Amino acid sequence: MDTNNKPTPRPTLEGVTLEKIVTHLSESMGWEAMGEAIPIRCFTHDPSVKSSLKFLRRTPWARAKVEELYLRTQRSR
Fold first, then answer.
1. Could you report the per-residue pLDDT of 18-65, keeping only the tens digit for each?
2. Counting C-beta atoms within 10 Å of the first and last residue's C-beta, which end of the chain has fewer, N or C?
3. Angle at 16 between CA 8 and CA 32, to 5 degrees
């Protein structure tokens, strides 16, 4: 059996909080780049982790986009 053809494991969000995701993205990308990648007001107008968390917890579609952005940054490492 050839074990060299195993797909590389995909990063998951298990154990990663939304606060950790937003903090990581803001520190690694910056708010401006986050706002360009996902044009939502909490990233483009007076951004903060607190305001972003409040919005993302109430808005499932936006949270899904932020989680996907986080996963893409983890894959490129």
1. 999 999 999 999 999 999 999 999 999 999 999 999 999 999 999 999
2. N
3. 95
Task: Look at residue 65 in the predicted model and tell me its pLDDT.
Answer: 97
In eight-state DSSP terms, residue 11 is P
- Count the alpha carbons within 13 Å of 34 in the hemisphere toward its beta carbon: 29
Distance, CA of 67 to CA of 73 (rounded, Å): 10
Complete domains list, the chain, with CATH? 15-75 (1.10.720.30)
Angle, alpha carbons 60-61-67 (nearest 5°): 85
The whole-angstrom separation of Cα 44 and Cα 47 is 6
